[in-house]
Every structure is written in C-alpha cells, then in structure tokens.
Amino acid sequence: MAEKVLMKGNEALAEAAIRCGCKRFFGYPITPQTEVAAYMAKRLPKIGGTYMQAESEISAINMVYGAASAGVRAMTSSSSPGISLKTEGISYLIGSDLPCLIINVMRGGPGLGGIQPSQSDYWQATKAPGHGDGHILVFAPSTIQEMVDLVFDAFDLAETYRMPAMILADGMLGQMMEPVVFPEKEVVEHEKPWAANGHQGKREHNIINSLYLKPDELERTNRERFARYEIIKEKEARVEEYLTEDADIIVVAYGATSRIVRAAVKAAREQGIKAGMVRPITVWPFPAKAVAKAAETASRMLCVEMSLGQMVEDVRLAVNGKVPVEFYGRTGGIIPTPAEVLEQIKKIAGGAK
Amino acid sequence: MADYNMVMAGFGGQGILFSGKVTAYAGLMEEKNVSWLPSYGPEMRGGTANCSVCVSDEPICSPLVVTPNVLIAMNEPSYDKFIDAVVPGGTVIIDSTLIAKKCERSDVNVFYVPATELASEKGLDGLANIILVGKLLKETSFSAYESVLKAIDKCVSARKEHLKAKNIEAINLGMSL
User: Fold this and answer.
1) pLDDT tens digits, one per residue of A130-185
2) Which range of residues forms the domain containing residue A246?
3) Is the separation of the CB atoms in A25 and A37 below 8 Å?
4) According to the model, what pLDDT value does residue A351 have?
5) pLDDT value for B47
6) What 3 state SS string does A81-96 have?
7) Contact check, Cβ <8 Å, A337/B66
8) Which residues of A touch B41 (CB under 8 A)?
9) Cβ contact, residue pair A6, B63, below 8 Å
C-alpha cells in the first residue's frame, strides 16, 4: 500500500492534481493558498509540465481558458479576492463548455478582507461563479484525504460534463497537515473531439467560443447547458450523513466547519441530545434531496457556517418550511469552536421540547 | 491512549512549527490520527508563531486546539495567551530562559526547562524547541521514543542530514531533565 504521509492541504491539492495528469498550472500567489503554486513551481518543470506565474489572476484564468480550449488538463488556484478577479474568465469557460480545475482556499471578505479561514464565498461559488446563466461543479472537502480524492473526481466530472470544477476549501484546510494516501489508480483522460488542437487538416476545425450574437442561438446553448445541469443535480450530488438516523436535531455544515460540528454533535450525544449532521460534499449540485429527507425525521435543523449565512438559504429551500432551520455562523476569519456549536444545539434542543 | 491536544507557541524562528510537525509525525508513525495546524497570520513574520497538534485514536474533529492538554511555551506573550486555556490536569512546559514568570495555577503540571540556555551550552543552538519536545515525551509519553526518532528522520530534510543527530541529542537531553 502507498505510504501515509503528513502533508499540508495546499500541497496535497497540488500533488493530487499532478497525479491526475494535470501538468499545466497558471496562477498568482495569494495567502492562504500560495503553497499550491509553490509546490507546482517546484514540481512541474521536473516532470515536463508548465508552471506559469501570471501577471494577475485575470491573466492566469485566461491562460487556463487557452489550455483547456486545446483539450489539456489545466488548473488555477487562488483565494477569495483572487477568485473574484477570475470570475470573468470562469464565465467564459462556462460559456465555452470547457473543463478545468479551479481551487479556492477561502479567506475572510469582502474586499481584501483578511487571510484567516472563511466560507463566505459560498454564494459566489454556487450561484454566480461568473456573469450569465451558468454553474460550475463545486466540491467541499473536509479533510486533506478528501481534498486529494475530490481532485481526482473534479477533473473526471469536469471532463464528463464539459464544465469547470472548483474545490472550495478554506484557509484551515489549506494550511493544516494531516496524513494522506495518494490513490494509485490509473487516470483516464476523456476523449476531447471538441478541442481546438492540431489536426493536420484532417478534420473540420473546432471553434471554442462563448459569443452568440443571435439571441435564439444563445438561448439554445444556455438551455442545453441547463439540461445538462439537471442530469448533474440528479446524479452527482454527494453528502455524508453522520448519526442522522435517529437524530432529532440535524446540523448541516460543509468543509472545515463540518469538523467542528462533528465534535459538537458527538458532545451533544454524550449529553443525551439526539443530534446528527448532514455534510454536503458537493455544494453545487447541492444535495437537496438528502437535506429534505433529514427534515422528515428531525424536528429542528441548524446550519453552521464560517459566514453570516449563505448555505442556509439552500438548506431552507430544500427543507421547504417543513421544520425550522436555525443558523449559527462566525465570520471574518474566526473559526467557531465546538463548544459554541454545542451551545447552539442545546439551545435548539431546549426549544424543541 | 489519551488524546493529546497540544499548543506549541513562541516567536517565529524558534522552530515552533517544526516541533509540532515532529510531534504529529511521531503519532503518525504509530498509526494514530494526527493533525497539525499552524498560525499563518502576519504574526509569523517576526512575531509570535503557534501551532495546534492533535494526536488521537479517533479521527480528529477540530484541528484547532482551543483547550489544550499540553502547552509548550517559548515566550512570554505566548505563555500569557494560552496558559488559562489549558485544561485542568494538563501539562505545561515552559522555556524558563525566555519566560521569567512562574505559573500561578495549581491544577496543571508545570515544568520549567531552561531550554534555550541548555541548547546554547550543549552546542545545540536552535534546538531548544526539540529539547522541550524531549521533556514532553518524558512527562507524558505521548508516543514511543522510537516513534519520535522516526519522526525526526521524516521531518529533517535530506539536505540537513547532519542535523538529525543533533535533533536526537536534543530529544535525549530533554528526556534526561
């Protein structure tokens, strides 16, 4: 079996991408994700890859646009303010149906904000990763091992559905070290008959484009894309359920926050409160069915985030008024403590009686 | 085994993050669940540095240690910041070369080690952090001695091969105190 190594989240993301056959990285440094770029800068030139530090985030995402157009596995990585700069390019990638990987190691915002962990880009990632009608796949790992595993899935599904994929992490996951094993599986890149690459005049040339001046054509491409999104929502939503079976109070949390919630749920159980957790692993597609199912058995729900309440809107939509959905969040780079979350669970448990 | 939720804190440059890494790796060598979370703010650049290390038989929930049962403090601001957070019964190891204060709490086990002074006396400059890890090992047996040696082997890069023996010497010195 492959060796378990202790690795920083950011470095593990980079190594996983390399093992996925991604040899083209374009980025611009920003705390707390700089180790992704640093790792790529060190490794890629040694294995025949390309590491390019662009002059800006806008430039980096457009280099990804170019590489992806040529059918090459490519990625970029940044943190919140940098992702905002990339959104124009992400929209072009969506509009051109191109696969790529984007990593967001979130920090506090808005504006330049801070550099400590945050989950306040949930809306951006899931609702408006760029202008126009469109979505990207968004994966929300909660451990370093899961970060690695999801990088493999992100590339695979991005190519399956021809759309960008994002790993939505945060400063805590990016900076922390945990044991990790890299899966030893063969990576198969998808056929890309649409790629604008060399063909020696043997076929019709491909065009990568997101400009449609005729409204009916643009509506058609958007509708086609949204039909694909329906399939994705049906097939690709992922969730982990923790002690939900008999749970009276179900907490919904993703990413690093779900680790704190897990501790709080354990502590609540020790105090005789039937608590459980639903942890979205994909936040787009949002696992609405699993959340709705949880609302059938629980009497109250609580959403915990490192934001002032973003995912809670999706939770409330999924629950559809069946049970009250409370919210607890810290923001600006503050990580909630298990004790704080336990306090919220107890408060709700008191109200449930 | 008990769970260890440790905070190691001091100035940037004292090897705080490195000693945390050695501790975490020692746990990994024993197939434990481990996590290591550094402070990464502007304070790292010349100010205080700290890291949280968890070693447990169970999967680690929060890698951010809020209430440590082990504190290694290598400067006064860090000592002041974390001493009240240590859980009763916890272990506190203080570099008494750099921290003049005496702990007023009676519900924690405090050990004063003049690690920085010892390091300089014994030709182990820059390894006060590892002397303190040695002391921690003696007082808590957070892992087996052999696992710490393996951890040092993993953590000291090949370029600094010559420092491995020094690190082991520092562990041994800490354990002898």
Assistant:
1) 999 999 999 999 999 999 999 999 999 999 999 999 999 999 999 999 999 999 88
2) 240-352
3) yes
4) 66
5) 72
6) HHHHHHHHHHHHHHHC
7) yes
8) 115-116
9) no
Q: In what order do the strands lie in the sheet with A177-180?
A: A5-8, A177-180, B33-38, B48-56, B4-11, B70-73, B91-95, B109-113
Same domain, A251 and A138: no
Q: Where are the domains of chain B?
A: 4-176
**∠ at Cα A65 (A166, A213), nearest 5°?**
110
Looking at the fold, whether A220 and A276 belong to one and the same domain comes out as no
Q: What is the pLDDT, as a whole number, of residue A122?
A: 98
Of A236, A263, A285, the one marking the end of a domain is A236
Whether domain B4-176 has CATH 3.40.640.10: no
Q: Does B85 touch chain A (CB under 8 A)?
A: no
Reading the block at residue B66, the tokens are 């809020």
Residues A62 and A196 in one domain: yes
Do A177 and B36 lie within an 8 Å CB cutoff?
yes
Residue A321, burial from CB neighbour count under 10 angstroms (0-12, 13-18, 19+): exposed
What digits encode the pLDDT tens for the residues A73-98?
999 999 999 999 999 999 999 999 99
d(CA A13, CA A19): 10
Chain B residues inside the 8 Å CB shell of A263: 61-62
User: Which stretches in chain B have pLDDT values below 70?
Assistant: 1, 42-46
Chain B contact set for A306 (CB, 8 A): none
- Residue B154's pLDDT is 93
CA distances for A329 relative to A124, A141, A335, A337, B16, angstroms:
18, 19, 9, 11, 31
Q: Cα distance from A157 to chain B (closest Cα, Å)?
A: 29
CATH number where A162 lies: 3.40.50.970
Give backbone dihedrals phi and psi of A149, rounded to 5 degrees, phi first. -60, -40
Model pLDDT, residue A1: 59
**Quick check: A112 contacting B, CB < 8 Å?**
no
HSE-up of A267 (CA within 13 Å, CB side)?
A: 18
Distance between CA atoms of A13 and A17, rounded to whole angstroms? 6
Name every chain B residue with its beta carbon within 8 A of the beta carbon of A338.
61-62, 66
Rounded to two decimals, the ipTM of the complex is: 0.93
pLDDT value, residue A353? 47
Q: How far apart are CA A31 and CA A29, in angstroms?
A: 7
Domain shared by A87 and A24, yes or no? yes
Q: How far apart are CA A194 and CA B91, in angstroms?
A: 62
Look up the CATH number of the domain holding residue A326: 3.40.50.920
Domain boundary among A181, A204, A236: A236
> Which residues of chain B neighbour A335 with C-beta distances below 8 Å?
62, 64
- Least CA distance to B60: which residue of chain A? A259
Low-confidence stretches of chain A (pLDDT < 50) are 353
Q: pTM (2 decimals)?
A: 0.96
B56 CB near a chain A CB, below 8 Å?
no
- Please measure the distance between the N-terminal and C-terminal CA atoms of chain A and give it in whole angstroms: 50
